[in-house]
Design goal:
Order of helices and strands of chain A: HHHHHHHEHEEHHHHHHH
Oligomer: heterodimer
Strand order of the largest sheet of chain A: 1-2-3
CATH superfamily of chain A: Ammonium transporter AmtB like domains
Number of strands of chain B: 0
Radius of gyration of chain A: 23 Å
Distance between the termini of chain B: 53 Å
CATH topology of chain A: Ammonium transporter fold
Helix content of chain B: 40-55%
Structural class of chain A: mainly alpha
Number of helices of chain B: 2
Chain lengths: ~475, ~70
């Protein structure tokens, strides 16, 4: 920090990520409003607290071990060698981005005059972790215990999404090399995995009391406060801007980075350190949101909950390739994702008796999965990295983006790291008797005692004369 | 359809091509598709809305009938 231009670039980058964290907080305000609005009155305060408690739990575990996992696991381990040290072991040596610098005991994991990036980058990723857990939170309202949700939130927020990010979002990730995986704004690494994880839990948790008739027909348990739900979704859209900006690197000189002699090329990049522009992703964010809203309005015949949810699903579906798509491609991809997600939600509900209270599996899981598959076709032949280009399965170089690789990637995200772990952990919690609240508590309402105490207070105050 | 197949080749060219989206040159077709989708949306939703409103109008509800539909939450 002795050269003014270098210092400006450093401080700008630090501030850039800091601002994205602040914006992404709105996602969580939105999720809280959305879930409180979706749940019935007798459960709504516990629903709010369940969602809230993921914040400190995921934050603390992210500090203790989550961040380390992201930097240690890009190689698999054992699947493809790191471009930093040529080894396929966990990256814990003296490489430039070794996980050893992100152990909780590292001096870089605190205020450090020699480092202006670790804390804000850690925080930007932490907000992604909260988002993964929040996605799961909505699907399981009104019948999961806060204890079980806390464990599941840590699992998805600090372990499984972190592994998928190391594999498919890190510039050194093995999925880029072997499969040509490309997922710029996290269709798979956040949304498909969280949706799949939620589905795994729901298969064990079971439906809310009253959701299905004795003959298995689903009943609609509509949102208690549709206005609160849609404003919550609108806030999630707002926070999502921060998410998109945080997925980018604001400024990078790719000339020396790619080993291009005598070339200077400053640009914004995506998480893979390949070029894009904030301007371009702004077009695509808005057009995929709009495509989602338009498709959702038609397919749900103007239902507010599904229309607003579809706006989000549209962005999520197009996110995998929104660093490169033309805006009209983005809009169309968003629309396709919504139609498939909506239809799949009701099909899965009927066929498998899955009660997803807020459509989280559809909006995030199915839309994310479809987005990855579509990306494989639309971006077929694009390089997954700037560091090298090679054949699929090679491992020493980076495969180009291709439909098969993206489909395998979608399977890994939704099923391997999402649904299967969610199902197993839920089964363990269920076996311990800790997963679901007692039937009597669900009928009475989780907030019964809070409401009873409030009523007693009201009577006592009303009868007071001084 | 890939506009870029190698970032090093693309960025070290004497003149770097700015447009990097898939299908550079097909903008005209994309815009036509955009118009079709936009106008088509209006046609479909106008019909949906008219059917919904006509069905509601046929029921001839009173000004306070909606109050009996307020749920307990």
């Amino acid at each position: 920090m002795t050269d003014e231009l270098g210092a400006l670039t450093t401080i700008f980058t630090e501030f850039y990520y800091w601002i994205t964290v602040v914006l992404m907080f709105l996602i969580h305000v939105g999720f809280c409003m959305y879930e409180v609005g979706a749940s019935r009155y007798k459960h709504h305060q516990h629903t709010l607290m369940k969602n809230t408690i993921l914040i400190p739990l995921v934050t603390v575990t992210w500090f203790l071990f989550g961040w380390w996992i992201y930097w240690a696991f890009p190689t698999g381990p054992g699947l493809a060698p790191s471009i930093m040290n040529g080894s396929d072991a966990l990256i814990t040596d003296d490489s430039a981005f070794s996980a050893k610098y992100y152990l909780a005991t590292s001096q870089l994991m605190a205020v450090n005059l020699g480092d202006h990036i670790s804390g804000v980058f850690w925080a930007a990723f932490l907000l992604f972790s909260w988002t993964a857990a929040s996605i799961v939170s909505g699907a399981v309202i009104e019948r999961i215990t806060t204890f079980a949700f806390g464990i599941l939130a840590i699992a998805i927020g600090s372990v499984f999404w972190t592994i998928d990010a190391a594999w498919g979002w890190h510039f050194d990730g093995w999925m880029l090399k072997l499969l040509g995986y490309h997922d710029a704004y996290a269709s798979g690494v956040i949304h498909a995995i969280a949706g799949g994880f939620a589905l795994g839990i729901l298969a064990v948790l079971g439906p809310r009391i009253g959701k299905f008739t004795s003959s298995g027909e689903p009943r609609n348990i509509g949102p208690r406060n549709p206005w609160l739900v849609v404003i919550g979704l609108f806030l999630i859209y707002t926070g999502f801007w921060g998410f998109y900006a945080a997925c980018n690197i604001p400024i990078f000189n790719l000339g020396p980075e790619y080993g291009m002699e005598g070339v200077t090329y400053f640009t914004a990049t995506n998480i893979y350190v390949t070029p894009t522009t904030l301007s371009g992703i702004t077009f695509n964010f808005l057009m995929s949101l709009s495509g989602g809203l338009l498709a959702g309005y038609v397919i749900s015949k103007g239902d507010p909950f599904w229309t607003y949810s579809s706006g989000l699903a549209g962005i999520i579906c197009a996110s995998a390739g929104n660093d490169l798509y033309h805006p009209i491609q983005s809009m169309i991809i968003g629309m396709i994702g919504v139609v498939i997600a909506y239809k799949m939600h009701y099909w899965v509900e009927r066929k498998f008796k899955i009660d997803d209270a807020v459509g989280a599996v559809a909006v995030h899981g199915y839309a994310g999965f479809v987005g990855l598959v579509i990306c494989g076709f639309v971006l077929n032949g694009y390089p997954s990295s700037g560091y090298s280009v090679g054949a699929m399965w090679d491992g020493a170089t980076y495969a180009s983006i291709n439909p098969l690789g993206m489909f395998i990637g979608a399977i890994i995200m939704f099923f391997v790291l999402g649904m299967i772990p969610g199902y197993i952990i839920a089964k363990i919690l269920h076996g311990m008797g800790k997963l679901r609240i007692p039937r009597e508590a669900e009928i009475a309402g989780l907030d019964y005692e809070i409401m009873e105490a409030a009523k007693d207070d009201e009577k006592s105050v009303a009868s007071a004369t001084r | 359809m890939a506009t870029v197949t190698n970032w090093i080749d693309h960025l070290s060219a004497s003149e770097v091509q700015g447009a990097i989206y898939p299908g550079v040159g097909s903008e005209g077709i994309l815009v036509i598709l955009g118009f079709i989708i936009w106008i088509g949306w209006h046609v479909i939703t106008a019909k949906q809305e008219s059917e919904k409103l006509a069905k509601l109008a046929r029921q001839r509800r009173g000004p306070n009938d909606w109050k009996s539909n307020i749920t307990d939450g």
